[in-house]
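Lesson 9: reading folded outputs for more than one chain in a single document. The general rule is that every protein is listed as its sequence immediately followed by its C-alpha cells, and records are never interleaved. Here is the first one.
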Amino acid sequence: MTQQTEQAQTSQAGTDASARAAYSASVETLLRRARDAHQRGLLDEAETGYRAVLDVDAGNADALHWSGVLHFQHGRMEQAEALIRRSIDIVPTPLALANHASALLELGRRDEAMQRLEYALELNPSHVRVRFMHAEMLAEAGRHDSALAIYDGLLPDAPAVAELWSRRAAAQLAIGDAAAALESSERAWRLEPTHRAALVVHADAARALRQYDLALTSYARALHLEPSNIDVLVARGVTLADAGHFEQALATFNEAIAASPDHIGALHNSAVTLERISRFTDAVARSDRVLAIDEKHAGALANRGNALLHLGQKAAAVENFERAVQLAPASLETLTNYARALHLHKQFAKAIETCDQVLSIDAEYGPAWLAKGLVHQHEHRSDEALASFDRALAIRADDLAASFQRGNALRTLRRHAEAIEAFDRVIAQDPDSIPAHFSKAFVYLALGDYTRGWPEYEWRWKESQVGDSRRQFPQPLWLGKESLEGKTILLHAEQGLGDSIQFVRYLEHVKALGATIVLEAPKPLRRLFERMPYVDAYVLRGEPLPPFDYHCPLLSLALAFRTDETSIPANVPYLTVDAQKLDHWRNRLGTAQRTRVGIVWSGNPQHLDDHNRTVPLASWLPILDDRIEWFSLQKVVRDEDQADLKASGIRHFGDELEDFDDTAALVHEMDYVISVDTSVAHLAGAVGRPLWILLPHLPDWRWLLEGETSAWYPSARLFRQPKPGDWQSVFDRLSKDVAALA
C-alpha cells in the first residue's frame, strides 16, 4: 500500500467517525426534545419525536421504551406492550421492566408481569419503583405479609411518601392488625390531607376497631374529596349499621342506590339493614333486586332466608339457605344461619349436622356452638345444650346470647339458683337486658317467690312479643299505692286470652276499693266478661275510651295487690255461663248417655313455647275409651290433626264456637275437661269444671314446678311430664285415670 493510499483511508475514517458522531448527536437531540415534550404533557409532539428517532434508529431502546409509555398513556396497551418489550430485548433496565409489567397487568397477563418485576429486581434489588410494584402485586394476590415486609423496607428511603404509608396501612388491615393500620393511614393523610385512599383505609381500620365515630369522620372526609364514590358511601352506611344507627344506615344505602341503582353492595347492605329493623317483606324485595342482577349472590340468598324465617315461611327460608351454602360452602355465618333455619323447620338432625360441618371448619366458631345448643335445647337434651353454650362462652366470655341461653338450659334442668346466676351475669354486662330480666321473673314465679317475681315480671313490657300489647296513656299506672275510692280505672287485657281469663278474677278486689271499672278486652271475650258484676263499662280494644283516672294491665294486678301464694284470689267460679247459650248447647248435645269429656290438644301456634305445650292428636287416640263420649273444645284444628280427628269419633264443632261464651257453655256441659296449657284450660278452671291439665316438664310459671293441684284453680288436677319431652308417661298415667272415669 502506498503512502498516498494510506492517507486517503485515514481521511475517510475520520470523515465516517465525524458522520457517526453527528448522527448520534442528531438522534440524541431528537430523543431529548421528544422526552422534554413528553414530560411537559405535549403527547402528540412527543409521539412525533419518538417516531422521528425510530425512523433513523429503529433499534433505539430509549425511544422504543418511551414511545411504549406514551401508548400506555393513550390506553393503547397492545402497542405499548410490544414497544416496551422490544426495548427490553435490546437493553433491559429496571424501569423499562416495571413499565412493561404495568402494560401486561392492564392486558390481564399477571404472571408475565410478575416475572418482569422479578427480573427487574435481579438487575437492581433496591429499585424503589420496582419494589413498590412488586409489593402491590403481592398484596393483590393476597400475600399481604410479604407485601408489608417490602413496604417496611421502603420506608427508610421514602418516609414522607403518603402513598407508601397508605399501602402499608392497607396491608396491615388485611392481616388483621387494625390498630397498626389506623396509625399508618393517619401518617399517610397527615402527609397528604387529600389522599382519599388513606382516609378510606383509616375509616376501615377504625370501623374494625369499633371506633365508629372516628370511622364516620374519615369516611365523610373521603366523600368530601370524591362525593360520587359509591363504595365509600356504602362503607359509611355499613358503619352506621354497625353502630346501631339503622335508619341512618338505610338512608345512606338508599342515597347510594339513587346514584347507582344497580350497585350490588348498596342493594345488599340495605336488604340486610331492612331485615335487622324487622322490615322483612321489604328485605325480601330488596334481596330480590340483588338476585335479579346476580342470581348467584350467596349473601342475598342468605339474607332472604333470614327475612323469610321471620315471616314464618320456614320451608322457603331453608330453600334459600340451601342455595346460599351451595354457592358459599365455606361461609361459616351462612352455614350457621342455615342450621338455625333447619332447627325452626324442625329438621333437627340436619341442623346438628350443619353445625358440626361449621365446627369441622373452625372449632372455635362460637355462633355454631350457640346454634347447636339451641337445637339440643329444643330436643330436650339440656345437658348437651349446656355443654354447647359453655363452649361458646369459653370462646367468647362476653357472648350475651350464650350466657342467656345457658341460663335457660339450667332453668330447664331445674338448677334454678345457677339459672338466676347466669341471668345475673347477663344483666351485669347489660343492665337493660330484657330477656334476662324476663326469664328471672319466670324462675321466681315458678318457684312461688312472688315477692321477687312480680316486680321482675314488669320487664315483660319491654319484650318484643308481649310489649306489642303495651298501652300508653297520659293517666298514671296504678300499682296499688293510690286510693281508688270514687275513681275510674281502666283495666286492659294483654298477652293471650288465657292470661286475661286468669287475671280477670282481680276485678272483684279492685271493685272492693271503691273504683268504677272500665274493662278493655278483645272481642272473643266480650260476652263472657261483660256479665261480670264488677264491670261498669266494657270496651273493645280500638274503640273510644271513656274518661278514667288510672289504668292497669290485668296481669299487673297481682303486683298491685302484692299477691303471694297464700293470697291468690281463688273464688271459683268467677265467670258465669249465659243461660241461653247453655240451653242451646244442651239441645245441641242431646241427653248424656255416657261420661262426657272435652279435650284440647293444641293451643296458639304462635306461642313461643307451643312446641313444648302442644301434643299431636295422634298421641291422644290410645286413651279414647269408647265408654266415654269425647268432645273437641277447640275451634281451630291444625292440618296435621285433621285426619286423626275425622277417624277418632271425637265430636267437633269448629266454627259453631263463635266466641268464648259458646266455649264456656260447652265446657259447662262436660263432666271433665282434659287440656294442655291453653286458654280453654283457664276457662274451664274459671267456671269451676273438673279440669285435668297436661304440663311439660318445665311448665309455665303459673303452675309452679311440683304438685298436682293449683292455687289458681281449685278444680284443676295437674299431670306433669317426669322428664323433658316425656308425654308418653303422662298418657300412660292418664289412660288409667280415664278408664276409672268410664
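And here is the second record, again sequence then C-alpha cells.
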Amino acid sequence: MSDRIPADGSGPSAEHRGIVRRWVLRGLATAGLAGVASGNPPGGGNGNGNGNGNGNGGSGDGRDDSGGTDPTIKKRATNEFQTRRDTARQQLVVDADTSAHTSNDRVATDAVVAKFGKSLAHDAATGLPTTTAYEELVSATESGGTATDFTEITQAYEDAEPPTEAAGDAVTVDPTELVGDGFDSKPLVQPETAWTYLPTGGSTATLRIAGPPAFDSAETGAEMVELYWRALTRDVPFHDYPDDDLVQAAAAELDTLDGYRGPGADGTVTPQNIFRGVTPGATTGPYVSQFLWKDRPLGGGVENQQIRVQAPGSDYMTTVEDWLKVQQGIVPPLDASLPGNELGSERYLITGRDMCERVHDDPPFRQVQKAAQVLIFGMNAPLDDGIPYTLKPFEKPSASRRNVATFTEQTTLPFNDFGPLYVEKRILGATEVGQKMAWHKKWNVHRRLRPEEYGGRVEAVLGSELSTPDEVDLERLLPQNLLDSQALAETREQFGSYLLPQAYAEGSPTHPSYPAGHSVVAGAGVTVLKALFDGDYEFPSSEKVVPTRDGQSLQTATETDAMGVRESLTVRGELNKLASNMALGRNRAGIHYRSDGIGGLRLGETAAIRYLEDQLSLPRRVPGYDDLQLSLETFDGESVTIRPTV
C-alpha cells in the first residue's frame, strides 16, 4: 500500500479501519506543512518568520512574511533528513550482520525434550509438549505468521471445558473446581513481536549473542544445581549467609562442580560470593545494590523502596499434578485447587525470596528509572566527562566538586539534552529496543525451555509419576553432575519430588527462556546510566545504606559495617550490581538459568550502545556537540567509547 494520501481525500477501506487514525494524522501533518510553506498555517496567522512554524501571526524580526520558503527551516529539515538517512544506511546496510543465527540444537529428537512448550498441548504421561503443537509454534514464529497463523498453534485448552480423556496425542488432566464455565490456556506472550520493525536504528534481527549451553551439557547441569540451591535458600537472610548451613553446603558443592560458571568458578565459591553476578562490582560490598535500597527523592517528598514481600515458605509446583496443570496453561485464578501467590509483610529486601518479589510483576525499566532518580536527585552524581554540562548541584556535603565547578562555568542548563528528563527517556528508548531484540532471539532463534520444564524432565527420569518418552533415552541426556547432586537430593527430601520449586504460583511467563527479558532491559537501562554518569564516583559513607535485620529501616555505613557496606562502592559497580540483581533475581524464582541472565545483559548492553550512537547523531550539528562522545566499561570489563553513528 502506498503511503501517499489519496488525491480524492478518501481514506482506507472498511477492512483497514485499524489504521484510519494514521491517515487522519498524516492529513493533519500534511495540511500543517502546507500551511507553513504558504505562510498560512492552520489556526490563523500568516507565519511567524522565526523558524518555528507554529502558526502564530506576525514576524516581528524583519523576515519576509510573503509565504516563501524559510531557508533556516529548509536547511534544518535537509540536515535532519541526511542524518537519519546516513544513520539508517550505516546500521541497516553497512554494519548489519545478516549471517544465520546459531542455536544450540544438538539435542534434537522426535520428542520435544529440550525446547520451550509451556501452555501448548501436552502429553500427560510424559509431561512433554506434543510434537504437533511445537511444530505449529515453529512454523508460525519462523514465518512471521504467514506459513502458520499464530492463532492456529494448538494450546491445551481453547474456549471450552477441558477434556478428561485423550484427544489424539494431546492427553490432558482435568482441573478441579474450575472458576467459570470455560477458559483458555494462558496465552503465549506475543511471539509476533519478534517480527516488529524499529523506526530507527539497526534491525532487531541483526544483533546477536552467543547461544545458550546445550540441554545435555555439564554447564546446564551446573545451572540447574545452582537453581535448586537458590530455591532451598530463598528464606535465608543475606545477613546470615556466612554462617548458614544450607548456604555453606551450596557453596561447597558449586565450588567443585563441573560446568559451574558463577563467581568463584576460577577460584573458590564462598558464602560471600555465592549466587552473585559476574559483572565488575557485583561481588563487592552487600549482595543487594544500593539502588534497590536507597530512598528515592520524588517531587516534594521521599519514597522508600520497601515492598510487600512473599510469605516465607511460599514455594509452588512441587507436585506433578500442579506442575502439569501449569505447563498446560492453567493458572491459579482458573483452578481453585492451585495455590495463589501469598504475600507477607512490607520491608526492604533482606532475603532471596524478597528479591524474587522485587522482580516479579514490576516493569523492569522502572527500577532503572528509580536508580536514575537516586543518582540525580538523591546523590547529585556527576555526569560523564564527555558531556559538556552538569546538573544543578544540590546543597549537601556529597555534591561533586566537578558538578560545582562545571555548573559555575556553563552558560546554559541541560534540559532536553542531558537533563533529568533526557536521562529517563533514554532509559525507556534503549530498553524498548533491547526488549524487541530479546523477543527475536527468544522466539525466532533459541526457544530454550524454562527451568521448570527442565525439572519435569528430571522428575520423569528419577520420579514415579511421569514416564520417559519412547522416542528418546532421556536419562542419557540429563547431565550426570545434576543427577548426582546434593541439591537434587535435598530438594527431594524437602518437597517430595525432583521438580524445581517455583517462587511464583504461575511459574514462568509463557515465552522462551533465553535470553531473559528482565536481564535485557536491565542491561540496556544500566548501560545508558553508565554512559551518562561518572562511573568512578564513589558513594560517600553517609550515602551507603544497608537494612536492619528486620528490614524495617536503613542504616548508613557510618552506623554499621554489616554485609561489607563500608567497602568502597562506586556508581559503576553498584549499577552493574543492580543489573545482576535484576537479571539473577529471576533465577532465584526458578524461572531463568544463569546464562539467560548473563546473555541478556550482554544483548541489552549492545542494544543500548547502538541506540546511544543514534541519539548522539541527532544533536551533533549543534555548536559544542561536534566532538561529543561517552565512555563506559562493559559488563565484561572492557572500555568502550560511544560516538555518533555518522
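What the second record shows: The chain has two domains: 1-32, 87-96+190-292+312-340+349-646.
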